[in-house]
């Protein structure tokens, strides 16, 4: 026994205390942030079907749309602004007059699977039944059982304000003939059980295609998960099938899972609406389900080898006064966090060099991030995220255009320069 | 022993290498706030943004939640706070409540003698005939607020103060908190009184701290009950 042994003994003891303390601290924080008494997903007395339903309701993020900002969970009233007018989400608590208290299991199934209300009326596809149709009857019943277990909230929401001619519901017959095929998910027997589970979640409850697709003039989603501007939100949901955008063919499964559950990885951060989806829904999914989704997502992405090497050379900074100006702005406002060479700080501040969301064809998300700033999703894995300041009150549109053009062409990045017009367009945000 | 020394050496070396990482503290995490609201040693960049350093913790926490949940309308704040849970907002509120007051350069507005007299009467005496309490009854004798919920009124630009009065009058700055508190008071004030009060407040030097918790009279606590219901954990 010498001093050193005694010291290590003390250190071990200290470490044990620290670990115990940290664990307690984590539990306390966790309880406050995610399991507080207001949390509708952790109520006592749910039977096993209702508990499964609670989990699936989270996977489908029903609460995200069916809750007004600052409003009662599931009581509806959230306004969804689209090109066709404003949709107001309905109350789906079991209140008999203002909610779905009078619905039967079969009614719920018809809504989810066929997009029809109990009286046979066709539902507007702002409710993503084009995706939810893939949910199995068993899962739909579990979700219904959970929703019926919620406290009934009496809340009458204002009617939709849909523009002519879209407010003429029978037109939906035509829309459905073009864009809607009812049918549960059919497993692909040539793939693994895990892949099929992932496909079921991504295509069905996860309704990823509701945003990650390009919509036709009539709002039909034709190109599965190939990316597009989100209706009414003015954010761009990147392609999940192209390696040039958010395709994950060169990501490991662990990395995909980390982004979906933590919200930030060494090379990417989920921002805008995706941060919200991670906070509300994805971070609460089981590791097993997240891995399944990752396996599926990885499999649907093309890879670099599918293309000839990109030919576009970066615009030389010194050749354009706008880029030189952009570089000065970068040094003044951005460099402190994102670094001299745009590498960021892993897991804290995202890199800009080599970041696909910076160089992808649409500069919209980069511009929006600079205009509005924001914090990544607050998750169990990232409980106190670092934030991006808003610059809309400091920088003029032409400055933002020059700055974005610069970061799209610095440090080996290569992408079209953006214009003041792009920035002006980006300011037209959907107001909730 | 050599192993121990090596371990210590590597620990130090690792720490030194990580020096370029951002500090793991609140100051670094609230850079998104301080870009507008100023750090304590920096003058504010824009007349509209209020100081938040040194304001009572409960007030700051309530405002953060009100912005996030759409009860107080200001879209840039709503977007910034979209993904923040209550306990993180509480950390932010606590951080700013313990910051020292930022340097405030009192604004220069000329007040006519009768304007000054009017402002001082409303601020320190109120008008009981019209059921208007003195500002100082709730916001403290030094007008630096009362812990934990009532904000201070000094160190704020006139443009900001006027805008708040306007918002209170037009249906309540904070929806759902209109019972008989600030929106009712603002409705009763005349334009002339509001201009005089905002000018007077914005030209004062700032000093002092919020009065301690419990100093609000029961009658006024009752009157403004909608803002004093939040539990503050220490």
UniProtKB/TrEMBL annotation, chain A:
Domain Cytochrome c: 48-151, 193-301, 321-411
Residues given in the record as heme c 3 binding sites: 334, 337-338
Cellular compartments per GO CC: membrane
Superkingdom classification of source: Bacteria
Keywords: Heme, Iron, Metal-binding
GO molecular function: electron transfer activity; heme binding; iron ion binding; oxidoreductase activity, acting on CH-OH group of donors
Residues annotated for heme c 2 binding in this entry: 208, 211-212
Protein name, as recorded: Cytochrome c, mono-and diheme variants
UniProtKB/TrEMBL annotation, chain B:
Superkingdom in the source lineage: Bacteria
Keywords: Heme, Iron, Metal-binding, Signal
Residues reported in the UniProt entry to bind heme c 2: 135, 138-139, 182
Binding-site residues for heme c 1, renumbered to this chain: 33, 36-37, 77
Statement: the UniProt record of this protein carries the keyword Signal: yes
Post-translational modification: Binds 2 heme c groups covalently per subunit.
Record keyword Signal present: yes
Organism (species): Nitrosomonas marina
Gene Ontology CC annotations of this record: periplasmic space
GO MF term set: electron transfer activity; heme binding; iron ion binding
Protein name as annotated: Cytochrome c553
InterPro entries in UniProt: Cyt_c-like_dom, Cyt_c-like_dom_sf, Cytochrome_c4-like, Cytochrome_c_Oxidase_Subunit
Domain Cytochrome c: 115-205
Cited Gene3D superfamilies: Cytochrome c-like domain (1.10.760.10)
Signal peptide (UniProt feature, chain positions): 1-18
PROSITE patterns referenced in this protein's UniProt entry, alphabetically: CYTC
């Amino acid at each position: 026994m010498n001093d050193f042994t005694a010291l290590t003994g003390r250190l071990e003891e200290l470490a044990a205390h620290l670990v115990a303390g940290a664990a307690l601290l984590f539990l306390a924080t966790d309880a406050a942030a995610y399991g507080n008494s207001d949390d509708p997903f952790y109520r006592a007395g749910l039977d096993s079907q209702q508990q499964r339903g609670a989990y699936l309701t989270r996977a489908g993020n029903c609460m995200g749309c069916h809750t007004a900002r600052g409003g009662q969970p599931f009581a509806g009233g959230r306004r969804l602004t689209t090109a066709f007018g404003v949709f107001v989400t309905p109350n789906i608590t079991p209140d008999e007059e203002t909610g779905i208290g009078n619905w039967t299991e079969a009614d719920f199934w018809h809504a989810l699977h066929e997009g029809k209300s109990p009286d046979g009326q066709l539902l507007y596809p702002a409710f993503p039944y084009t995706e939810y149709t893939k949910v199995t009857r068993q899962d739909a019943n579990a979700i219904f059982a959970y929703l019926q277990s919620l406290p009934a909230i009496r809340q009458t929401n204002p009617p939709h304000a849909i523009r002519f001619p879209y407010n003429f519901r029978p037109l939906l017959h035509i829309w459905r003939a073009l864009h809607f095929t009812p049918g549960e998910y059919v497993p692909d027997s040539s793939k693994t059980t895990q892949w099929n589970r992932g496909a079921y979640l991504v295509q069905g409850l996860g309704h990823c295609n509701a945003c990650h697709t390009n919509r036709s003039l009539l709002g039909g989603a034709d190109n599965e998960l190939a990316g597009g501007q989100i209706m009414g939100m003015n954010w761009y949901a990147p392609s999940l099938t192209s390696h040039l955008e958010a395709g994950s063919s060169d990501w490991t499964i662990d990395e995909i899972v980390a982004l979906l559950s933590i919200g930030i990885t060494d090379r990417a951060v989920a921002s805008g609406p995706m941060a919200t989806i991670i906070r509300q829904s994805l971070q609460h999914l089981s590791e097993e389900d997240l891995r399944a989704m990752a396996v599926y997502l990885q499999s649907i992405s093309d890879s670099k080898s599918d293309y000839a090497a990109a030919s576009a050379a970066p615009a030389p900074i010194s050749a354009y006064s706008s880029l030189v100006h952009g570089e000065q702005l970068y040094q003044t406002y951005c460099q402190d966090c994102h670094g001299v060479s745009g590498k960021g700080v892993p897991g804290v501040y995202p890199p800009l060099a080599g970041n696909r969301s910076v160089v992808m064809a649409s500069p919209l998300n980069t511009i929006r991030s600079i205009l509005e700033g924001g914090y990544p999703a607050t998750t169990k894995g990232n409980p106190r995220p670092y934030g991006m300041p808003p610059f809309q009150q400091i920088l003029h549109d032409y400055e933002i255009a020059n700055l974005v053009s610069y970061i799209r062409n610095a440090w080996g990045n290569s992408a079209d320069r953006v214009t003041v017009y792009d920035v002006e367009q980006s300011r037209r945000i959907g107001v909730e | 022993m050599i192993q121990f020394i090596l371990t210590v050496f590597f620990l130090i070396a690792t720490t030194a290498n990580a020096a370029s990482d951002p500090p793991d503290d609140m100051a670094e995490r609230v850079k998104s706030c301080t870009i507008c609201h100023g750090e304590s040693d920096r003058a504010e960049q824009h007349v509209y943004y209020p100081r938040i350093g040194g304001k009572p913790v409960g007030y700051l926490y309530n405002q953060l939640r009100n912005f996030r949940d759409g009860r107080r309308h200001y879209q840039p704040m709503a977007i910034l706070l979209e993904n923040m849970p209550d306990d993180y907002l509480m950390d932010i509120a606590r951080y700013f409540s313990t910051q020292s007051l930022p340097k405030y350069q009192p604004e220069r507005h000329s007040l006519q003698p009768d304007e000054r007299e009017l402002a001082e009467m409303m601020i320190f005496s109120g008008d009981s005939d019209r059921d208007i309490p003195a500002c100082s009854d709730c916001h403290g004798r030094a007008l630096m607020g009362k812990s934990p919920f009532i904000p201070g009124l000094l160190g704020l630009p006139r443009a900001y103060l006027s805008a708040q009065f306007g918002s209170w009058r037009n249906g309540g700055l904070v929806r759902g908190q209109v019972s008989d508190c600030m929106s009712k008071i603002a409705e009763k004030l005349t334009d002339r009184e509001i201009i005089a009060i905002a000018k007077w407040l914005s030209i004062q030097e700032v000093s002092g701290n919020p009065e301690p918790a419990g100093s609000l009279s029961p009658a006024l606590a009752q009157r403004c009950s909608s803002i004093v219901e939040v539990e503050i954990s220490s």
